[in-house]
Amino acid sequence: TWWTQLGTARSSASVPLAGERLADLRQQCRELMLTNQYAINGIENRISYLVGPGHSYRATVRRGADASKSLASEVQQVIDRFLEENQWHDRQQEIVRRLDRDGEVFLRFFTTIDGATRVRFVEPDDVATPVKQATNPAASFGILTQAGDVETVLGYYVGDTLVPAVDIQHRRANVDRNVKRGLPLYAPVRANLRRAEK
Question: Which residues pair with 147 in a beta bridge?
């Protein structure tokens, strides 16, 4: 009985902010990103460092693998199409900006009729627990998890619609693994950035 149930252990550092407080904090950091020259410069430098001219992806055949170079060429065409249709280089930059600004990024994947994959952003404010699930702790913060295990995500409530976890990639920042939502990069230094600009 002394074992902690999977995914339920919490330290004071990993307790998430309540929804309204998190939304307010996110809004403050968004304002900094629009108006504070130091905040803007910091994020632009991070984008330049992390993404730079963009990442390269190349399909190759492993040594000793039983595959032809023509198969690798076909795979490369699929990769190149994905990168072009989703404007991946620009999207990579935006992912870093959103992750730092909002503390999290939601990428939703759609499959087209011809089998292509489209990537679209979901706004963090649009991921929220519907009223009918308000008393369900497994559905807190708009993220439905397995009961007693916050690391096993079953789906995301986008509006009132439950989107399966397989269709969304959720990147969180500045929180422990067992916290459902991320925190903006500038959350702890908001006052310092304002003071520096003054």
Answer: none
